[in-house]
TrEMBL record:
Transmembrane segments: none annotated. GO terms for molecular function: acyltransferase activity, transferring groups other than amino-acyl groups. Keywords: Acyltransferase, Transferase. Residues 3-154 form the N-acetyltransferase domain. CDD domains: NAT_SF. It holds the Pfam family Acetyltransf_1. This is GCN5 family acetyltransferase.
Length: 154
């Protein structure tokens, strides 16, 4: 499969939101609130400091995406780039779409002086874990904790 990777634009927002909705359902059986999700996707384009999306295309048709966000590391005096919101349409899975997206993130991160790449994965998602390990990523020794806060509805 011949793939091209490009930066997403605001015109991609509806598809990015739909893919996020599908990813949340497939990985966590979680239904996201569409208006909140749509505002969240648009928020990345409105404030580039939040990150950026990349889109994989095959023959001009978008087949996958991911979001990159940043985390400052005072220990390393640099940014980690977090890979999030990964989605590849079922017909394009296992043919290199994520590999191509990952390669572009790694290229951009190295050029920007990032100190590393990170992502999180569901503990039961063995296929994704094998993919990430196949790309040279290693499991960290950290557990992830969170404390959801009430978010005002806008």
């Amino acid at each position: 499969m011949s793939l091209q990777i490009r930066a997403a634009t605001p015109a991609d927002a509806p598809e990015l939101a739909a893919w996020n909705m599908a990813m949340a359902w497939e990985t966590e059986r979680k239904r996201l609130e569409s208006a909140t999700l749509e505002r969240g996707v648009r928020g990345v384009f409105e404030q580039p400091r939040r990150g950026f999306y990349l889109v994989a295309e095959h023959d001009g048709a978008a087949v996958g995406c991911l979001l990159v966000t940043y985390e400052w590391s005072d220990w390393r005096n640099g940014d980690f780039w977090w890979i999030q919101s990964v989605y590849v349409v079922p017909a394009a899975r296992r043919v290199g779409a994520f590999r191509a997206l990952y390669a572009e993130v790694a290229r951009r991160a190295a050029a920007a002086g990032a100190v590393g790449l990170r992502l999180y994965v569901e503990t039961e998602n063995g296929r994704a874990q094998a993919t990430y390990e196949g790309l040279g990523m290693q499991r960290c020794h950290y557990f992830m904790y969170e404390a959801p806060l009430a978010v005002p509805v806008l």
